[in-house]
């Protein structure tokens, strides 16, 4: 009976926590809806458009701070702040490299988080190693496809190594997300890669302009940040569940 009561109590606590988390995410959902409502291809670069674009990410950072406190500053919280800075920079085309640098820092912080003690380590099976290989192949193949288009850029001498380092960092983040075996973290990282791939093929003119290209880029981007943020908030709970499973 005691075990049943404990399980029921745990379920109630999880339900209450989930409701509280969903409520704290409402500003993020509202600001995301505002961005898609206000954005058009003719939207000029301005402080207002930069603020509207970065607001959802800043609000996610506030949610992570309220739930995790300062322990995520050099982790997902810091990554979200750098991402929001990158959002602002990418509003102005001339700040593209600055924005890419901010996102590279975000990927690095996410990667450091995924190998921290808050994320339970799992042994790598053959299937997991095979996924690592696939992800590395995708990253390398994508850089090879981009290379001829990067050569045509006016600042190719700087852009080529910068894009190469960026692809290494986001691929590393994806690999470490697979290592955690956390569904939210993994899906968030893969969604981030899809968003960046979609952006790159448009920015470097690998494909003709897409009618709804920005919607694809930003919807997968905001989804990625949401999943990574929520996954980080739930990291401690998942680690406790894994520890209980190992003891049983």
Q: Overview of this structure, please?
A:
The protein is mainly alpha-helical. Helix content is 80%, strand content 0%. The chain is globular and about 55 Å long. The two termini are 19 Å apart.
The biggest beta sheet is recorded as: none
Mean pLDDT: 88
Please provide the count of β strands: 0
Briefly note the structural class of the backbone.
mainly alpha
Rg for CA atoms: 19 Å
Query: What is the succession of H and E elements?
Result: HHHHHHHHHH
Strand-residue proportion: under 5%
Calculate the terminal CA-CA distance, rounded to whole Å.
19 Å
What is the overall shape? globular
The stretches of 5 or more residues where confidence is low (pLDDT under 50) are 241-248
> Helical amount among residues, as a percent range?
over 70%
Number of helices: 10
Give a nutshell description of this structure.
By secondary structure, the chain is an all-alpha fold.
Annotate the secondary structure layout.
Elements: H1 2-24, H2 26-38, H3 47-68, H4 76-90, H5 96-114, H6 126-151, H7 156-180, H8 183-203, H9 213-233, H10 235-247
